[in-house]
Amino acid sequence: MEIELKRVILPGFYPEWAKPTYKLIQFLIMAFAATVAFPYLPGAETPAFQGISIFLGLLISLGSSSAIANIVSGIILTYTRAFLVGDRVKITDTIGDIVEKTLFVTRIRTVKNVVITIPNASVLSSHVINYSAAANDPLIPALILHTTITLGYDVPWRKVHDVLIKAALDTPRILPDPSPFVLQTSLDDYYVSYELNAYTDNPGIMAKIYSELHQNIQDQCNQNDIEILSPHYRAVRDGNQTTIPQDYLPPNYQAPKFRIDQD
To answer: 140, 201 in Cβ contact below 8 A?
Structure first.
């Protein structure tokens, strides 16, 4: 209890290990005591008693294989510290907060307040993404939220970077330090993909932060005359304005006229 309440600190022994360790030691002591006392029980040497013992042991071994697998998985998850109660995690396709962790199951409450129960064996056999690890450990950098937009080649990329970073800094719960940054992840046939990356220390409200971030991206793009669209050309380019940004064109540049050959 003292270790669990952090009144006593043991190097390398985490507070969340206290209760399961106590229960595990208690179970081992009881199992050892039962093993030692079994031969001294009245009638332990009779064939009927031994037959019943074998029958019960067979039932337990056949019927509790999945339960034992979940218990072992629960112990492993506890001592590997994959997640704590209250962490925002993603297990397979389920995203939510850990509300309960027992020896048999793990319960997750999604952002829609739906509680999902997952057997510990299934949790251990799948990968776990812990969004709250950075908030719990000061040695881990803050969580990075990222979103992607695609814009045409006619929009100067430096302007896009400035607009996206401004949108991130205008978003509540986005950290100004480390500063948000933009990556150009691909140069496609008709548009450029820009990935905005921003740090936050509030993973529990990721959905709200993403929503506000997208709102600010729309506002900043509208204020800077940037249309959020991915152009696709399907017509003759003869009379179209070039997609090269205006700053790169010569001062006297004019778009060519549309020409039709009547021959």
So the answer is: no
